[in-house]
Design brief:
Strand order of the largest sheet: 8-7-9-10-21-20-18-19
CATH architecture of the largest domain: 2-Layer Sandwich
CATH class of the largest domain: Alpha Beta
Shape: elongated
Oligomer: single chain
Amino acid sequence: MEQKKWSLQIGGRILEIETGLLAGQANGAVTVRYGDTIVLATAVMSKGASRISGYFPLMVDFEERYYAAGKIKGSRFIKREGRPSDDAVLSGRAVDRTVRPLFNHRMRNDVQVIITVLSYDGENDPDTLAIIAASTALSISNIPWNGPVAAARVGKNKEEFILNPVNGELTEGELDLLVSGSSDKINMIETAAKEIPEEEILKALAFGQEAIKKITGFILEIQKEAGKEKSAPALVAGTPEFEEKIKEILLSEGLAEALYDKDKKIIENKLSAIQDKVKEYIKTNFPEEIEKLKEVAEIVFEEVSDEIVHKNILEKELRPDGRKLDEIRNIECLTGILPRTHGTGLFTRGETQALTITTLGSPGDQQVIDTMEVDMKKRYIHLYNFPPFSVGEVRPMRGPGRREVGHGALAEKALVPVLPSKEEFPYTMLLVSEILSSNGSSSMASTCGSTLSLMDAGVPIKRPVSGIAMGIIVGKDNNFKILTDIQGLEDHYGDMDFKVAGTEKGITAMQMDVKVDGVSLEMLSAVLTQSHKNRLEILKKITETISEPRKEMSQYAPRIIILRINPEKIRNVIGTGGKIINEIIDQTGVQIDIEDDGMIYITSPDEASAEKAKQWIDNLTHEVKAGELFNAKITRIMAFGAFAEILPGQEGLIHISEIADRRIEKVEDVLKIGDVIAVKVKEIDSQGRINLSARMAKQPE
């Protein structure tokens, strides 16, 4: 393969795309460089149909490599990268959500896109490059795909938008918006924001769209120059006569009516009965092609159902459960329902129910994040669990999948902007959302449940956060209808799932996926306008249940006492080999976290133990001043005087002339080791030595 290289000036840096040097046996392979961050994207398609049936078998993997950042990680015994980090999972999902809608849904070839980070400069995020690289690799390959697409990252600092900001600008800025799409449409959004109004978000999307337009044009030029002829895909298809007959059976058996009911179970039962009729027809008339034609019938079922839902909403504004287009399902909120947890929030919206539990811990309970990109600690963690019973299914429980990681991350970043600072509230906060029932928008139910749970736990959040999932139905002539609070069936047959979370002041998190080739800025403007109204409705329901964080934390939550000491005194608290700090912990049962700036956090299940540890540390780190009085213990006797311990680890000298108010010949005539006497700090000399006086301690002030 001939080696070729192209470059484009974008965001004040050079975007460089190269092919022909690496991964020559893939159907399509490119490297994309931005700054010193380089990613390799490969796209490979199987020659024939996959053994997997029921869906298009696309696999997207985002591979972090520690060598890319010049790091060696892992235990002493294992140095190979293990399972993907949550960040890698989220990056892979962003690529998948961008490219998947542009494949033919009837296609059954296995397709795998692998993005490998080869070099990371610590500034230019590989997420954006991964989407651009995957799009280019698919575009120049022989894999049938309706791209290209591209991506841009948008930051905001004060009044200015920043295209593809470096990591420092993201950390300090108000916005982190990853957006992807084609030259005129947007098909994926992932956003974290610090309470930014909807109109500013729309401006940021338009700003990002301009960059996307340039990059997609750039990829099209590369495709014209280096692209392969597209292959014919393996499609699920029956004869026109067979598919028409299946459609006839579906409609005659009442599919249009079966899709409409307020009860999810009733719909499922009706649809199952109709599908049984179709299976019986195939079994009777095509006994030798049952498996093949069953999948064709399933595709027809999905397409006809999709057509019915689209037509009813576009022409009659008729939703499957009978709600108005802008109507939210019935909401119920409860707090404090579990007796021993630190905080609980139960949020129920229609048939979707999320129970979120808050657990408070010490600063030392923070999660350590150690990946290719970052080494950091996280004090707010949100975990999302989606057990099979929540949708009435039976399946093995094998830990969190990509979906659980993605939903947990979305609910987590929705609350981060309203959390109290560590100085104000030093606790580590772990939230777990258990989805107990699901019929759409469980991630936004988790967000609302998090607000309830945090306030129930007494966490002083700045403002409550609510979330809503919006949908859209787009007609063939690009007319559209916006749907509020989409349920499962509308998510499945609708054209967009747009989750928006925020406070009364503005948006804190967004996530959007589509099933069409993208949506316009006009559509997004309408969605954001409607979502604002709906978010405020939900906020009202939340604040009617609990209007502000509780003044008192649960009696079962730990208590934290904060001390600030001279950093030079830290060694006094730790002791040689940790001897002193371990002694404090063993005798009081507390947990102690010490930071380099002298901040000490004492975490204890009860206040008495915390106070005991505090007093101990106060004594260890007390900076003695002239004139202070102490009860001192005699530790050593010398010819010229006696040494006495006034505080743990701090001794001073009582000169022989300062022992008594009369002349004494020998120290031993008055003192012996172990005696406890009153002393006064006479002075602290230029070398920091403490001079004590027993004589002055006896004199009246």
